[in-house]
């Protein structure tokens, strides 16, 4: 369930959660490469890098120049890291996360880095699925700066994705006094939606979206995405589709990887693989998007051999169980594209120990059913039941369409 938009607060503290949308559904979009491939022919093209032009790269270059002049300027370094994380949110390129980390390198050995730097380090750790490190850094930030709305929002996101809902609600409550009601309300609604109170969450989101003049485009895209996911879990597919279209329309300059992935999954569950191809065939080549595109191509009878080979190569470490950060993507590949339910179940259960969102629950439920091991999904069923969630809506769409 997506929760927190990284550019909601352009005034005062812009790009608050550049890594958090990855955390909620598509965290750690880094590519898990196997042993490096060294071509024998130097003319072989391994990858075509996208051009580094446009407003985002102009801002990055300006910040690089400023940091070169003042390498100990924590504000500039944090701003540069924010820009890289924000760009990564839209293109899913792991190099951008590495660049963000490098922007903060001046404080690598500092026991107490500036708060801005510590916050960005926490967001980077979240993106890379180093959740314990992220939590520890955020707690220190909050102790030093208890009115840091960014840190409270980040902590709420982390708690939500790991199923620590009571903690997430407490973090959201802090936002009531620190920022506007829409932000605090949406934070709380995201937790409500996964704890059996989706109807109340949806009422709040609908009423907020009905006042478009009060929302900037980024906020509108964020809230519409959350409304779409909530509507689907409430069994309102037409409303969900409407919200997804609104989120895409509001996305400036381009939709996030999270939004594209969530919408693609919705379309696959509705039996519309052709629409997924149309949505993703010109999208960035991030692993979650390539997985959905390959599945859509397979369902429409198109050859996806080359795309599957690319994904198998990227996910090799995760498929072997050596890379937990990409267990979700590897489980998806094994279950829906490689027809290996046993491997998929092992990976899905491993992923469940780290992430506990709807997609993670679906992966375990579907893999257990495909492997004819329904008891293996008991931890997921018990968790959902303990938080008042209906197994029916969560599993029925996936079972009807064969996932995801």
Describe this structure in words.
This protein has 404 residues and is mostly helical. It has a domain at 1-33 and 56-222: Serine Threonine Protein Phosphatase 5, Tetratricopeptide repeat. Helix content is 64%, strand content 0%. It is globular, with a radius of gyration of 20 Å. The two termini are 15 Å apart.
Low-confidence stretches: 1-35, 396-401
Number of helices: 22
Write the H/E string, N to C. Answer: HHHHHHHHHHHHHHHHHHHHHH
Query: Beta-strand level of the residues, as a percent range?
Result: under 5%
Write the layout of secondary structure elements.
Elements: H1 20-23, H2 55-69, H3 74-91, H4 94-103, H5 115-127, H6 131-144, H7 149-161, H8 165-178, H9 181-192, H10 198-209, H11 217-233, H12 237-250, H13 257-269, H14 273-280, H15 287-299, H16 305-314, H17 316-319, H18 327-337, H19 341-352, H20 358-370, H21 378-386, H22 391-401
Helix pairs in contact: 2-3, 3-4, 3-5, 5-6, 6-7, 7-8, 8-9, 9-10, 10-11, 11-12, 12-13, 13-14, 13-15, 14-15, 15-16, 15-18, 18-19, 18-20, 19-20, 20-22
Short description:
With about 400 residues, the protein is mainly α.
Fill in the keyword field for this structure:
404 residues, mainly alpha, Serine Threonine Protein Phosphatase 5, Tetratricopeptide repeat, 22 helices, 64% helix, globular, disordered N terminus
